[in-house]
């Protein structure tokens, strides 16, 4: 691929939202010894992608401009680095690209072989591209709360906020696979959708009952998977079991402070910040669940690479049901 060019979408500074995305023609990257070059078929936008653009992780990310955003992709292996032994050209895969390098909004990208897994034929590119950050986060949050996926989980009650979103819709399905009782919150238009994922109880977050987070059946929550913002500890605390914990996947500095104070005072009820790091093992497990029909990626909308800025704006809007997918190519 040396000397060839590709279409890509990038931005050249902090801020600007979708209007700052620019379509460019740049050289196809080359894989290092432990990397694979992928011809991308689909990419999935996560909120962290545009939060990085807003500058919420400056000066760490991005390390330099211009920057091609998005990390969660599915595609086909085109070239192998010299040290890569577990893939072959032509393999269909799911991968999480380097957060520092990005590269998902492009026709080709290099990926670490350590965060790339084979994609079974039963798993479409869109299905696979949704998994790395969102599904891995849902899986790791549930595990950190005590859920087991081997049939040995003790009865637990879980609350999932923003259950119709990217992480939330996977969390509902995975919680039911672990035989947990699921109470979920979402907007009124998504109540039946969230029920269809397996939720036992669903609250409209805009009603007084939903705002209080109280289980309709009076259950106290052992785990809260907190996928949104703007809900204070005073709302969570009366709904928690004696040793219940709120696991916050978008923690603010206040979350870290509150968590530290509760540890210092030996509080039984906890709030725990969690920044999930996808692993190869988790991605393989999740791809297997999709293959077997036990987990599904719900796609809110699909956009071609030529309209990537529309997908970006949709994600910033914050009301997607499931995942937003950018289709790069079909071959």
From TrEMBL:
<dbReference type="InterPro" id="IPR052733">
    <property type="entry name" value="Chloroplast_QOR"/>
</dbReference>
<dbReference type="Pfam" id="PF08240">
    <property type="entry name" value="ADH_N"/>
</dbReference>
<dbReference type="GO" id="GO:0016491">
    <property type="term" value="F:oxidoreductase activity"/>
</dbReference>
<dbReference type="Pfam" id="PF13602">
    <property type="entry name" value="ADH_zinc_N_2"/>
</dbReference>
<feature type="domain" description="Enoyl reductase (ER)">
    <location>
        <begin position="16"/>
        <end position="326"/>
    </location>
</feature>
<dbReference type="InterPro" id="IPR036291">
    <property type="entry name" value="NAD(P)-bd_dom_sf"/>
</dbReference>
<dbReference type="InterPro" id="IPR013154">
    <property type="entry name" value="ADH-like_N"/>
</dbReference>
<protein>
    <recommendedName>
        <fullName>Enoyl reductase (ER) domain-containing protein</fullName>
    </recommendedName>
</protein>
<dbReference type="InterPro" id="IPR011032">
    <property type="entry name" value="GroES-like_sf"/>
</dbReference>
<dbReference type="InterPro" id="IPR020843">
    <property type="entry name" value="ER"/>
</dbReference>
């Amino acid at each position: 691929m040396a000397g060839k060019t590709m279409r890509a979408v990038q931005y050249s500074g902090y801020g600007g939202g979708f209007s700052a995305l620019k379509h460019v023609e740049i050289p196809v990257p080359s894989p290092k010894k432990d990397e694979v070059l992928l011809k991308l078929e689909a990419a999935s936008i996560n909120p962290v992608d545009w939060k990085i653009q807003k500058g919420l992780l400056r000066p760490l990310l991005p390390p330099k401009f211009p920057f091609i955003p998005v990390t969660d992709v599915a595609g086909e292996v085109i070239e192998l680095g010299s040290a890569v032994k577990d893939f072959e050209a032509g393999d269909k895969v799911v991968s999480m690209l380097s957060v520092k390098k990005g590269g998902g909004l492009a026709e080709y990208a290099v990926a670490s072989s350590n965060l790339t897994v084979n994609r079974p034929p039963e798993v479409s590119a869109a299905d696979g591209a949704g998994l790395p950050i969102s599904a891995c986060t849902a899986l790791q949050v549930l595990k950190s709360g005590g859920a087991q996926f081997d049939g040995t989980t003790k009865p637990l009650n879980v609350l999932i906020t923003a259950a119709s979103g990217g992480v939330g819709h996977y969390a509902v399905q995975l919680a039911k696979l672990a035989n947990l009782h699921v109470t979920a919150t979402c907007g009124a238009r998504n109540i039946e959708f969230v029920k269809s994922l397996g939720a036992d109880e669903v609250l409209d977050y805009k009603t007084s009952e939903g705002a209080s987070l109280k289980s309709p059946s009076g259950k106290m929550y052992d785990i809260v998977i907190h996928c949104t913002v703007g809900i204070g500890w005073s709302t969570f605390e009366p709904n928690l079991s004696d040793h219940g914990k709120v696991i916050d996947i978008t923690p603010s500095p206040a979350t870290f402070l509150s968590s530290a104070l509760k540890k210092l005072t030996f509080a039984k009820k906890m709030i725990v910040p969690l920044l999930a790091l996808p692993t190869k093992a988790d991605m393989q497990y999740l791809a297997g669940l999709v293959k077997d029909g036990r987990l599904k990626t719900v796609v809110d909308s699909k956009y071609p690479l030529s309209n990537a800025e529309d997908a970006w704006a949709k994600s910033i809007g914050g009301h997607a049901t499931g995942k937003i997918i950018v289709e790069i190519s079909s071959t």
